Predict the 3D structure of the following.
Amino acid sequence: MENTDPSLLPSIIFTTAAQLVDCVDKKLLVVLRDGRKLIGILRSFDQYANLVLQDTIERIIVESMYSDIQRGVYIVRGENVVLVGEIDPEKENSIQLREVSLDEIYAAQQDEIDNRRRRELTKNSKLIDIGFSIDTQQEDMY
Amino acid sequence: MLPLTLLNTSQGHPMLVELKSGETLNGHLVNCDAWMNLTLKEVVQTNSDGTRFFRLPECYVRGNNIKYLRVPDEVLDIAREKNQQQREEQRKSSQPQRGGYNRQYSSSGQRGGFNRNRGGGNVGRGGGQFQRGGRGTKY
């Protein structure tokens, strides 16, 4: 065994939900499988990575625009979590995004969804043309 | 407190449940279990587009279909208080046990040595584990 550097051990030991201990009481970005982005303070978690988030906002990001919605307390079922990331409070205010109104962001989001659906349809019909079978299940949105 | 503990303390409170399909259920939580199965009452169900609404007097949700739950802010405070109370009670009830070696030995002595050792060991270990887990999540 060459690897005896003690500083490497923690990252090897905590490869499951347990590494979330470092994130408790910190502001996190949580991305869900449906593409939603939640920003809130992690209050607790369990072995399934079920999360409790406090003072949560939902941030809708489309291209370089974003808009926030106040949401409150979330209990997120772990299965739906794609990633959890700590937010650096110092860099938080220097994001390269433009805040827009909710109406604006909803419209932009709808456009994005429509575009994706159109792309998907053309892709699928091409695939069928060359003899692939396609599954009709909706893909992950993140 | 753990997510499912918080869910438990939300019993009787209004909440919003979003299912993986995107449907949402707005209602009061009646009961829940360790699998996150729920029973709700006075529910308003919406379809995934949010265009249609259905009123249901009660409904049952199998936990695996849930995406997330939103609970009122005050439930966190209530859960925190309950947790604090429980810890105090536990501390009170565990202190006399720790000092009460004599009592433990004499009472289990009637049952024989094997039981005595196992019983004592389990009590000690169980207590330690709980406290450790509690400190990690800070509640």
Notes: The domain at 6-129 of chain A is CATH 2.30.30.100 (SH3 type barrels.). Helices of chain A lie at 9-13, 102-129. The CA atoms of residues 100 and 110 of chain A lie 15 Å apart. Chain A has two helices and six strands.
